[in-house]
Amino acid sequence: xxxxxxxxxxxxxxxxxxxxxxxxxxxxxxxxxxxxxxxxxxxxxxxxxxxxxxxxxxxxxxxxxxxxxxxxxxxxxxxxxxxxxxxxxxxxxxxxxxxxxxxxxxxxxxxxxxxxxxxxxxxxxxxxxxxxxxxxxxxxxxxxxxxxxxxxxxxxxxxxxxxxxxxxxxxxxxxxxxxxxxxxxxxxxxxxxxxxxxxxxxxxxxxxxxxxxxxxxxxxxxxxxxxxxxxxxxxxxxxxxxxxxxxxxxxxxxxxxxxxxxxxxxxxxxxxxxxxxxxxxxxxxxxxxxxxxxxxxxxxxxxxxxxxxxxxxxxxxxxxxxxxxxxxxxxxxx
Length: 334
Description:
- The chain folds into 2 domains: about 160 residues, Rossmann fold (3-Layer(aba) Sandwich), CATH 3.40.50; about 140 residues, 3-Layer(aba) Sandwich (Rossmann fold).
- The longest helix is centred in the N-terminal third of the chain and has 17 residues.
- About 40% of the residues lie in helices and about 20% in strands.
- By secondary structure, it is α/β, with parallel strands linked by helices.
């Protein structure tokens, strides 16, 4: 009798298990967490990270350089997409395939990829204004998810958010800094400088790192040497999280076109850190609490009391809404 029960349980597990593939460039090394969560839930999941694809040899590199100069074609981009198809051939038919930031793949390749699965899904890490996908909207995907509320309304995308991929961490009661910012060199620098001046005025101990190319940063290093560190090496995800752990508050500055929440907010949930942000849309999320989240340009002055007051613990039910396990269950309808 016991053997029959175990056999039936095995059949049930086998029936529920899905073959799921995630395809992405994965600039910031977030997407492998999705695959890990799927595998932990008992699914057969695989990540095709075509951002790792490189020229096979010097000849390929030279050919690609000549092609870009003479014909305007980047052969490396084409080979990356062919690489995705080669990987899918070896993996076999998938139940579901998720493509993150699908605009980096041509329509021709999308249609070929789609033949390798029963359900084809896309998730947009950015707004359509920044990364146009209009050429992929005519029945290429079964479902397109977005966290940009304007795009969701305009294009009838399905709404989601980013996710918390970290384990919940105990509060660090003796961090080195009151506030920490890490971001790329771009248009956000002017707003960062304004915020730095506000923090200086109330004696906040902060660390601000701006990452970019030396040719862009050299003239800024001297001008802002007393307030901002400019570096050319991108931090690893582990280094980034370690810096956030060593601070009371995480600073989140968004680009002008952005509406959805960055990963900073979800990392802050796990690390139990406060946030300073210029993204007013955070007020629409269930985890918003003015004791933990200060919204810039919202008519209130930044005061030292925000940094000094303890973090207000989040309701576990709300916290669980934004875990990666909950996210993959929703995206893949598991």
